[in-house]
Write a structure and sequence with these properties.
The protein is α/β, with parallel strands linked by helices and 268 residues long. A four-stranded mixed sheet has the order 2-1-3-4, sandwiched between helices. A hairpin with a 2-residue loop joins strand 6 and strand 7. The mean pLDDT is 93.
Length: 268
């Protein structure tokens, strides 16, 4: 899945494995040492001097946070080709030894997926990263995450996410955008990680989006389920294919409990 997603992203950018200078890999559904990009190096024909940046533990926020990290690395080294790949195999969490309510809900909601994109400084591409921000709420470690146990991963849903998002996301979003001299009303489209139907509804209410406005999010959730980190990039891909708005914010919620955002301006 890593190779398939990475190869497709590079091909669309007119690039190949040897062109890549930095590989950012995000996954929270499994641990591998050597990590995924090292295991894929020969198949992808990555150069021996390519920098590897594996990241674990971001959960559903990994799509936005990983893109933000890739953008920072690209900006720090003008001309570098940064490949961001996220792979999540949520089905690995399916367990028969401890079927709690949370495990059953997670099995019904989550799916497997992989996504990738190419980031580099300069002109070209379909959007420019113009802002990056995160907000982690205090005393929220129990909202969501994994229980890492000898028999496998167990999902943690100790608090309901939709009411939390409905109440808390907008002030956090206003604060994050304020650091970029923007307001919520300045954003033409919020491109959201669709954690579930109730989460989508909560996001619409919190961000004053007309009911049903997160249409691409609903499509991705219906077609693929919540794939954790890759899901936000699936939504971004559908938005860009239908035409990027002048200014958008890619946003995702994940364990921590954290909101991660990347502000995107449509490329000229």
């Amino acid at each position: 899945m890593f190779v398939q997603a990475a190869s497709a992203a590079l091909a669309e950018a007119g690039l190949a494995g040897p062109d890549v200078d930095v590989i950012v890999t995000v996954s929270s559904t499994g641990i591998a040492t050597p990590s995924l990009e090292a295991r894929a190096m020969e198949r992808m024909k990555f150069r021996p001097d390519a920098a590897r940046v594996p990241v674990f533990g971001l959960g559903c926020a990994g799509g936005a946070t990983g893109l933000a990290l890739a953008a920072k690395l690209a900006a720090a080294t003008p001309g570098a080709i940064v490949l961001f790949v996220t792979v999540e195999l949520c089905s690995l969490a399916f367990r028969l030894d401890n079927l709690s309510k949370a495990d059953i809900v997670a099995t019904a909601l989550f799916g497997d997926g992989a996504a990738a994109c190419v980031v580099r400084a300069g002109e070209g591409g379909f959007a420019q990263v113009t802002g990056i921000a995160e907000h982690t709420w205090p005393a929220t470690l129990d909202v969501m995450g994994w229980r890492v146990e000898p028999t496998g991963l167990g999902v943690i849903f100790a608090r309901a996410i939709p009411p939390f998002a409905k109440t808390n996301l907008r002030p956090a979003m206003a604060s994050m955008l304020g650091g970029q001299n923007l307001e919520v009303e300045d954003i033409d489209r919020f491109i959201c990680h669709p954690g579930g139907v109730k989460v989508i509804e909560a996001l619409e209410l919190s961000l004053s989006i007309p009911q049903g406005g997160l249409d691409r999010e609903r499509e991705v959730l219906a077609d693929h389920g919540n794939m954790s980190a890759p899901t936000a990039l699936f939504v971004l891909d559908r938005v860009r294919r239908s035409g990027m708005p002048p200014r958008s914010v890619l946003t995702a919620l994940g364990p921590g409990f954290t909101a991660s955002t990347v502000t995107l301006d449509r490329a000229a």
